[in-house]
Each structure stands twice: as C-alpha cells, then as structure tokens.
Amino acid sequence: MISAAHDASDGAAAPTGTAASRPRVGAAKRFVVKVGSSSLTSGTRVDEAKVDALVDVLAVHRCAGHEVVLVSSGAIATGMGPLHLARRPRDLATQQAAASVGQGVLMARYTAAFARHGLTAGQVLLTADDLARRSHHHNAQRTLTRLLDLGVVPVVNENDTVATDEIRFGDNDRLAALVAHLVHAEVLVMLSDVDGLYDGPPTRPGAVMVATVTGEQDLVGVKLGRGGDLGRGGMTTKVEAARIATAAGVTVVLTSAPQAAAALAGDAVGTLFLPTGARSGTRLLWLRHLSTPRGRLLLDPGAVDAVVRRRLSLLPAGITGVEGDFVAGDPVDLCDQSGNALARGLVDYDATELPGLLGRSTHELARELGPAYEREVVHRDDLVILRP
Q: The pTM is what?
C-alpha cells in the first residue's frame, strides 16, 4: 500500500492522509545525513547560506548528544566556479581536477560553519574499494568511530580526485547507505531539492508523495527521475541507496534540505523507508549492490547446489568455464550452465590460472602443484547470493 503525506510540490496532488510521527527517527543516537550538490551550491559556486543553514541544524543535534556523520556531495560542482567552467565537465580528468579544487573549498566552508558552534569537522575521503577490502573497511570504520568518540563531525565524500569507476558511481547516495551501515547508524537522512518520493514527476498534476515504504510492493508504479546537471544522482540512485540501507536494518528518511530539522526530529516529512532486513557485513553489501563483476565462472549443477542452496565455498571441481579478464580479489559472477548469474564473489585466482584447475579436486591439485592450491576459488565468506 502507498500512503501519501506532507507538502506536495507545485503541480502535485494534495496529500490524502497524514503520516504518523517517527519516534524511532527522533530517538536515534547516531545519524548519517547525506546532502546533494544542488542543496549546497548556487550556479557553479558553493552557497555559504545553504551550507550554514544545514550546519546549524546538524549542530543543534550534535550539541544535544546525537552523533552525526555528514556525507556531502558538491566537490565537483564547487570546483567549477574557481576553474571558470560553465557546466559540469564530461571527461574524467577535468572532473577530477574540479573535485581537487572544490573539495578544499567545500571543506573549508564546513570547517568554518561548524566552528561557529564550537564543533570540529573532520574530512574523510573514501572509495568503494575502501569499503570492499576487509583491511580497508575496518580501517575506515575505526577512523569514523574514533572521530565520533572525539566529538568530531566527520564529513565524508568520495575520493573523486583519484577515483575512476567511482567517479560515475552516483552522487554519493550509495556511499551514504554503506557509511550508515559502517558506523552502525540507526537512521540515514537523505537531503536533496525534492521534498520526498513521488509516484511520478513532482511537477506533474496529480503526482502523489509516497509517505512510507515498507517494501518493494510500495514502489510498484512509481516512476523515478534522473539527476540534474550538477549532481550525478537522481531519485533512482536515492531509492537504490534506501534499498541498500534498509536491507541492513537502517531506517531512511528522504526529503529536502529545508526540512532537515523536521526530519531529524522525527516529524512526518518526506518519505520514510522502514528496515527490511538485518545488519550484515559491509563488504557483502558492497559486493551485492555496488560491485562490477570482472568476469564469470560457469558452474555445473552440483556446484550450483553447493553454493546457492547449501551456502558452501566454490571449489575448482565444480567450474566448467571461465570468462573475463580478472585477478585475484576481483568480483566475479557465478553462473549456471545457461549463463544466469546466481551469486557473486571475490575470486581467489587470476583468470589465467583457472583453466588448468577446472574439474579437479583441491587434494589432487595440492599433490601436483603444492599446498597453496588446496584452497577455494571463492570462499563462502566472500560470496553473496543474487537469486535463490
């Protein structure tokens, strides 16, 4: 069931009901707040008034004893002004250059704004790889936790100045979902220039806001829009981020930046996404939702049963084919004989190594090639099921 509530944008239908207050949101100890580029900039420059307004809201909650992590977009958009760029660059090198300039300007503005409240801001730049590899994500988690323990407000962004695939990742929405999981936040508040999720374009006559999403059934018939010129995301990436977060037990509120105070207080603004699952490993969330497979392994029926139904590791004996160019540690899809991707995992061999191992037992390989070959191709701890 889709219920509608709160203010409708111009052209949208009047709400048909009022959503209840959200005590689990207002009572949360730890929030992650994600803000988009359009809510921080005017034209091609950072808007100090917008930044100050957001920081004022976050500072009230931080000073009241809540812990806040801010995931901020806007580095590329902020760098466009100083570089005299009239529009968002399309080539990777110029995007990275704009991010390099803009990140410093944006962080300086945040530092000054939080300092007005006696608070310290700390910059944390992450890539998807930092959340994928065990040693990296443990380090990121430890750093963020320590910053919160010290009373600092972490300001997180993607490391766009060196990222390649990540530069096209999608307006930090998915990163915010992973950060919320990483720091064990109860609530993720996503702020943009739209006051909630509508069942169609908010400017369309008769569009209705979706007040509460309890599962996929509430999204049936909802038409999602794409992002604007300055940001990389849009409603599609925000809903996908909400799926990631709620699957990990995090409550999500999606609304506009001017409604930040009401959202953090637990008032019935925007769209509420309720948790659909429980917390799992951050690497596995990344593997399922964000990773790009570098190849495919074709499995015989016995291996499909072992991996998908019995949740066992994948061994060389069950592989019938190898496709793609990958190295150890890359994500690969595990497919049945028809090519259907049933699982995804981090492979423990290079693509060039595997053909000579297929169909053979690990004991046989160890006897012939040495004990280093008595290991799984994909360990069950590094594997997620995509479809049962």
A: 0.78
